[in-house]
Specification:
The complex is a heterodimer of chains A (about 400) and B (about 180).
Chain A lengths: L10 E5 L11 E7 L2 E8 L7 H5 L4 H8 L7 H16 L5 H29 L4 H21 L8 E2 L2 E2 L7 H23 L3 H7 L7 H6 L5 H4 L7 H4 L20 H24 L44 E8 L2 E8 L8 E5 L1 H6 L2 H5 L4 H11 L3 H5 L1
Antiparallel strand pairs in A: 1-2, 2-3, 4-5, 6-7, 7-8
Chain B lengths: L1 H29 L14 E3 L9 E3 L9 H5 L6 E7 L4 E10 L8 H5 L5 E3 L14 E2 L1 H4 L13 E3 L6 H14 L2
Parallel strand pairs in B: 1-7
Antiparallel strand pairs in B: 2-5, 3-4, 4-6
Classes of the chains: A alpha+beta (about 400), B alpha+beta (about 180).
């Protein structure tokens, strides 16, 4: 029996794609010297479904059910960007109420995503209890989603120019109840996790990224904010109505896994703050922009004015994308989720480039795990927060 | 000799600290013993679906005008609309209509855009079969109403605590409508 003899009897270990802590189907080829990681090569593509190509043969309405399959834990964000890009391309305004509903849905989705990050991250570190606790709160969020949209994960709720349906009766109260309940849940997590010395030993100083490095690697979201850079697209881009709420960008300057944990926990609290404010002052009015189907010549009256005539009930299924291109982005829980959209005066987008946050954040992994121990791969990979559905698309 | 003693001392302190926090964690875990389980025994107990739940699609043959909007908004052009143009009435006559629920993803686009509301979402979600071709529903299968969960006496329904008594009456009324 002859094994390829390398420099110092290095061992090459294949982790994944079926490894439970690879968060899906990521495959890592890890070169080990004893317990130390010498090299790590991620291999992607096990969940590639050609989402960008599919978009080129679908109208936006037809494509909307697909998008929740990119990042299937932060489903509302994929829908938000899918409608935001054509909206910006065609300069479609959305009513205030629709914008508020979107904000509430997005922030609920952010909480759900961060919760399902927290559970597996702790499970990777060997703490199984939070994994069960998070599902309790997450289930409540999904109940809210089901009541409003009809499905727990594959909502198909956002439409060009608004949302598909208004909030059902009593939903607002249910949402407020959830906010109160969830704040107690966060306190429970923090008591359980944040000060725990075993947890701290595992995460403190592990996977350090300096601020400069984070920018150079193109990281975004909590990965970037944990390295001391206060960059949140909700503050920077002012999309939807995020500027009407009082909230702060969560950030830490340490740049290690613990900082990323703290940023995400803080973001969940901030999301609750945003939801509470949005629910408090949600305006009445239409939940859908009824202008989308208006004829061009009748566009004189001011939007939502008394004179304003609403023509269609639904945005047309034959929504045409004009021959322009643009890049639209939202702050998804994992980072900057963007679409580079090229229209071609037809129903189908000519190009639909997705910029998934997980994919860009994942590229720093080999550098982070080098010279660390084998067991730290789980911590670092967990703290990056990837979903293979959006990494491979 | 001296560094060894301090080493032992700090190790001891660390151990005590760890033990204390493990104790604190256990108190939180133990505080959960006092609550009811969140899960339900699925086949014997079922939670009532929300009103907007998107289950199997119901289709009314007589309402359909064969406009094929459902096909145009479907992500995979799934509904199969078989029609013939009748010259004497100058209308499209619908002959057959079928949806394959083995392929449908229940996105609800067809229901949303149907101009005559001949499509609707039911609360039926148990669609498992041994043969996938059984899931290809024609207009007759599509027009069947689902058995209401409330009407099934072998199943205990679990009500969400937030639902009020008004809801309760309403759902009992709907049972009498749904369940022939």
């Amino acid at each position: 029996m002859s094994l390829p003899l390398t420099r110092k009897d290095l061992m090459i270990v294949n982790m994944g794609p079926q490894h439970p802590s690879m968060h899906g189907v990521l495959r890592l080829i890890v070169t080990l010297d004893g317990e130390d990681v010498i090299d790590c090569e991620p291999i992607l593509g096990y969940l590639h479904r050609g989402m960008e190509k599919i978009a080129e043969n679908r109208t936006i309405i037809q494509y909307l059910p697909y998008v929740t399959r990119w990042d299937y834990l932060a489903t509302m964000f994929t829908e938000a960007i899918t409608v935001n890009a054509p909206e910006f391309l065609e300069n479609i305004q959305i009513p205030q109420r629709a914008s508020y509903i979107r904000v509430i849905m997005l922030e609920l989705s952010r909480i759900a995503s961060h919760l399902l990050w927290l559970g597996p991250f702790m499970a990777d570190l060997g703490a199984q209890t939070p994994f069960f606790y998070i599902f309790r709160e997450r289930e409540l969020i999904y109940d809210l989603f089901e009541a409003a949209t009809g499905m727990r994960m594959m909502h198909n709720y956002f439409r060009i120019g608004g949302v598909a349906a208004d909030l059902p009766y009593g939903w607002i109260d249910k949402c407020l109840d959830f906010c109160d309940y969830f704040l107690r849940g966060v306190i429970e997590y923090q008591q359980l996790i944040t000060q725990n010395p075993i947890f701290l030993e595992r995460v403190e100083g592990v996977g350090f990224i300096s601020g400069e490095e984070a920018v150079n690697w193109g990281l975004s979201g909590p990965m970037l904010r944990a390295s001391g850079i206060q960059w949140d697209l909700r503050k920077v881009d002012l999309y939807e109505s995020y500027n009407q709420f009082d909230w702060k960008v969560q950030w830490q300057k340490e740049g290690d896994s613990l900082a990323r944990y703290l940023v995400r926990i803080g973001e969940m609290r901030e999301s609750i703050k945003i939801i509470q404010q949005a629910v408090e002052k949600i305006p009445g009015g239409p939940y859908e922009n009824l202008e989308v189907r208006r004829f061009k010549k009748a566009k004189n009256s001011e939007w939502n004015d008394f004179e304003y005539r609403f023509l269609g009930k639904k945005p047309s299924p034959n929504f045409e994308l004009s021959k322009q291109e643009l890049y639209a982005r939202v702050e998804a829980p994992k980072g900057e989720l963007g679409i580079y959209l090229v229209g071609d005066d037809s129903l189908f987008p000519w190009r639909w480039k997705i910029r998934p946050p997980g994919f860009i954040n994942l590229q720093i992994l080999p550098q982070l795990v080098k010279k660390m121990k084998l067991a730290d791969i789980m911590t670092i990979l967990g703290s990056i927060d990837i979903i293979m559905g959006e990494v491979d698309r | 000799m001296f560094p060894m003693v301090t080493g032992f001392m700090s190790y001891g302190q660390q151990t005590i600290r760890a033990a204390r926090y493990i104790g604190q964690s256990f108190i939180i875990t133990l505080s959960h013993t006092n609550r009811l389980p969140i899960t339900i025994h699925y086949p014997y107990e079922k939670s009532i679906t929300s009103e907007r739940f998107r289950g199997r699609i119901h289709f009314e043959f007589d309402k359909c005008i064969a406009c094929e909007v459902c096909v145009r908004v479907c992500p995979i052009d799934l509904p199969l609309v078989d029609w013939r143009f009748e010259k004497d009435i100058k209308r499209k006559q619908l002959l057959n209509y079928s949806i394959d629920f083995g392929v449908c993803i229940f996105c609800g686009n067809c229901v949303e855009y149907c101009p005559t509301n001949c499509l609707s979402m039911t609360e039926e979600y148990e669609l498992s079969t041994y043969d996938r071709h059984e899931l290809n529903y024609n207009q007759i299968a599509l027009s069947r109403l689902p058995i209401s969960i409330m009407g099934d006496y072998t199943i205990q329904t679990i009500r969400n605590s937030t639902q009020s008594k008004i809801d309760e009456e309403k759902s009992w009324n709907s049972r009498t409508i749904t369940d022939y």
